[in-house]
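The passage that follows is intended for readers who have already worked through the single-chain material. We present the inputs for a multi-component assembly, then the predicted structure in tokenized form, and finally a short commentary. You are encouraged to pause after the input and sketch how you expect the pieces to fit together before reading on.
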Amino acid sequence: MRTASTNSAWKSAVFSHEGILFLVLVAEWVFFYHFGTTVNRHDVVVGFGTIDRQFDILRHSCEIGLLALALTPIILTAGIDLSVGSLLGLCAILFGMLWHDAGLSIPVAAAGALVVGALGGGLNALLITWLRLPPLIVTLGTYSLFRGLAEAITRGAVTYTDFPASFLFLGQERWYGLPTQAWIFLAVAALVGLLVHRTTYGRSFRAIGFSPEGARYAGLPVGRRLALVYLIAGVVSALAALIYTSRLGQAKADAGTGYELFAITAVVLGGTSIFGGVGSVTGTLLGVAAIAVLKNGLACLPVVMRMNGAEELSGMLTGALLLLALTGSVLPKYLSNWRASHHSARPQTPT
Amino acid sequence: MKYLPFRLLLALSLAFAALAPAVHAADQKLVVAMLPKAKGNAYFISCKAGAEKAAKELGVTLLFDGPTDSNAAKQNEIIENWITLGVDVIVAACENKEGISTALRKAQKQGIKVVTYDADALPDSRTFFVNQATPEGIGYSLMDEAARLTNSEGEFAIITASLTASNQREWMKYIQARLTEKYPKMKLVLTRPCDDLKDKAQSEATAMMSANPNLKLIMAICSPGVPGAAEAVKQAGKTGKVKVIGLGLPNENKRYVHEGVTDSVILWNTMDLGYLSTYAGVAVAKNELKPGAKSFKAGTLGTFEIQGDNILLGKPFIFNQGNIDQFDF
Amino acid sequence: MNRYFRELSVAGALGLLLALLAVVAPAFYQPQPLLSLATREAPTLVVACGMALVIICRQIDISVGSQFSVCSVGAGLLAAHGWPAGLVLLASVSIGALLGAFNGVLIAGLRLPSIVVTLATLVSLRQGLNLVRQGEFVNLPDGLQWFGLSQTDGQWTLVAFALGLLLVFAVALRYLSAGRFVYAVGTDTEAARLAGINPQRVTFAVFVLMGALTGLAAMMNIIQSPQVQPLSGNGLELKVIAAVVVGGVAISGGRGSVWGMFAGLLLLACVSPTLTHLHIEAYWEKAIQGAIILLAVVADGLRSRKENR
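Having made your guess, compare it with the prediction:
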């Protein structure tokens, strides 16, 4: 039973994970729609059920969503990037600097920020592929380095503001019905989706995630493929930095602090295995949505409102949700293993 | 087996869908949402106590939420939550002037009234600013007190919350102005941020003292900074040799003031600040207080002067060994 | 010689830094500020001992910062309630051990990846604490500071205790079978199993120990001041992981020593005071720490490349 189910079982497992996650998302949404919509003193409908709130959810999930998209191929290769949030901060302030201090136009400054993102991602890529260092520790170092540079450059003090309305349009207005940045998010999602699921690159990411040595023997350019995913992550972080700056109308060195945690949570919640090899972009998108709906929905519940801690509660529940999803993903395997051999219960290590 | 959770969830969601959009009527009280810079900070906790007292007297619902670490982005998200919830008035202490004003303007567009306190936003994004003391008053008081304690000569250092906070920058400006104007023999050798953390203030102060052996005084201009600096001076055994003054709450500093580590703490009455801000917010929401007013009466505290669009709380107060026990906040 | 090359090179870097300070900023070497610095780093050293063990066991625990905060606030509340210091200490260690056991069950029992499990507990514990306490400080009763000792005695006690613990760990890892088990599991789980070690049990024990040490460290931290700050553990995980990695403990498990970690910790701890003494802006601190971590791993990478040739 175990041997026959290698390929199709993985497939169905992924399928059911996404399926369940989708239903959780729907249930979440309906729950908040029902309990989070109220009428205020002036008989105006407020809360979760308003169209504005739905757009807010989309707006708030764009930056973390972009980082999660960038992390999906990385985690597929069994890697990790802890530096994306810090790189977001560094790109944000360098963008502000290029525009405000160097007097460049917005598009040129934005291009500059993207270049910085590519350089940052490139540094990770270089260390991880050239010296074959563990991504966890390399990106832990760059996590400190990028944030530290951002703080050092601005001396922790400078905040860039007063961006022109044409730039704020990106983060605060709507374009063809949706928040402007949502279009960028969707475009990046489509691109990453194509890359991961419709090209040979995606297959090589999975192969590397299952076994980098095996992939190398199979003739895959492992180094170049790995470099690519970290480079993409750098550029996407820079893109997220532009959106962040535009949404808040300010660029400061603390931009994006802690975002890496939520992005990784979204990816893993979406069913991508932290051991690599398994996962999908759809799952990541569902994971991002599940977290965003939870966060914004909780803020609309009158009970939570009186607790004065919607942010904290949603963070706590997100962590719990992540643990549940992980446990749920291994339990069936344990049960079947246990059933297969009662006495010498020795489950397979999920590697 | 595998489909069971599917069906359950489906049934559950259908049940909810059938009920939705059953809309609950929220309570009919006016809702005041108060935003601190950091909600765990003792300064804002005592503001909250005053606000709660006012909310009770006025019969309104008070929400009090903010970041746990002074974070401008989180402030914006909390305001956006309040906009969707349709609160009546937002009373905000702003971490970053420009950053928060976008969100506040959006609130105004939705018919929510905005009043700021403690640290102001851009003038067009709020109706009134409850000004605890003019930056000039604070800066001059601190600098004069520092000069008095050091006989107007020697090196001193400053601990700030963060260099981004706009009110701290304002105060620094006036401290600097007073220094160059009146006390040429004093020298500001160092300014360090402590991120509104007491532990960080303590390690910064320790490092300051060992790097500058001639340091005569440390001035902390954020409330966690004063006890932090005092603890550092005490542990270094430099009580009396390095004076500590700053902006802080009486309760946090009583211990050090009595031990003689901290010489004086300057502050306005923060409970009154919360109380007055809540009263002002409610009055603006009820259209009882309009731009152009010259004075404002806030419950049991009496009447306050309004200068332009600033409601003035009054003069800063100097707490020292002689009077600090009379205050409990 | 070659065996301790890594440890010695970190110690060498530390020596260089200290020599540099002796020349350009002799004011650094004053007994009182140095003792204060050592006292503040003592709890970090205790946590780093646990982290060294966890990483040698080829796991990671990024939830220690949140555990630290929870233990601090928990212990602070009990102390404020009038519990005697000894019981508070016991409670703090127990809370830590319980939190560690929770991680341990998920990681050793269900074999979930430690990075994700502890990421989840990091977020949940931190936010849970913020929700319950709203970030409020806890005021401690008067007798608790320095356990009622004089300040200097208290500081020496803490430093001596932390160093003693370091020594115990160094000896235990080297000479006790339990210590060898940790290396064995970190080097090759399967081989360890074949050698008759139960890897799951070792992993679980390591996480419980990590939690207990964090609880201990939290206690060592709160007795240093009259108030407990709920955010005090934020970022602690990075500080200790950095110390362990800079000290030459391999993130891939099975290699490294607590002495290397100790040198790494001292090196990183000296960065901030050095900046102040050299009158460099404090804002460079984080960037420099990041650069030190990267330098350390790059050195490792270059060395293993050379060896593989």
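Commentary: Chain C touches chain B through 31 residues (CB under 8 Å). The longest strand of chain C covers residues 138-139. How closely did your sketch match?
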